[in-house]
Amino acid sequence: MNLKRRPRRLRSSENIRSLVRETHLNKSDFVKPLFVVNGENIREEISSMPENYHLSLDQLLIEAQRLVDIGIKAVILFGLPKYKDAEGSSAWQEDGIVQRAVRTLKKKLPGLFVITDVCLCQYTEHGHCGILAEGKIENDQTLKRLSKVALSHAEAGADMVAPSDMMDGRIAKIRETLDKAGHGDVSIMAYSAKYHSSFYGPFRDAAHSAPGQGDRSSYQMDIANAEEALRELELDIEEGADIIMVKPALSYLDIISRADQKFNYPIAAYSVSGEYAIIKAAAEKGWINEKAVALEMLCSIKRAGADIIITYWADKAVEWLEE
Known about the structure:
Order of helices and strands: HEEEHEHEEEHEHEHHEHEHHEH
CATH architecture: Alpha-Beta Barrel
């Protein structure tokens, strides 16, 4: 028996395991999603996403300060508007909820990196991510609205805009619009490979963004496709994205890994609401250890190649890593 090579020697204690560990989670890896609503003194827990909340502006500021204090460097904002209409016009209003939230955060916490989700689904009465005509999404008409949304966020002070709609050509249109308006320093994180996933359910409850008719399969990606994802990622890079994203994360680790191998580019992964809710529910039943499973999942996302992890566990992960 040849036992000259014994891999267990490097597993014999926590000290040696930590020395040879290949993947390390850091608090700077995480972006925390926040849901902002109109009103005052509102901090309502989202039932399908425990320990995440609908926050009015005053409570948003308190929550953001808490995140800064524990070392979270970036947040991504999702807004719930006062009204919805066919084209989602409240999404680009100067006094819209996200625009007001950005101004509030940048005034009080200028060092916090503020990312804004750019889409129409929360703002349209039909719940789709674009302009709907005779049951179909009008791609190019949608681009005009999305660029207006992105510009309004940049004018409010957003550091980065994140188009999540999956319309063709939206990165190029938004980049052109921002540059022409003098916002060349505002970066774009593109939801490049966003799949037509069943893991979005809790988010759609939280954002009040479920489509009223049909589904999003004509613009979000088929869950079976990988080569298509690489084409989408490459297109967004060519159009001017600064960061490319894969969403969801856990079921698409292969896509994250292939993107990391193919592109020398920053990669974000969104660990979505369904991933969070499943682990939360199982932990509440006592079937799994939430901390251990969540950190294992986040580690797998980074090991696959993600540079940035958008996660509802961002704050808890920071606390766990410091224990």
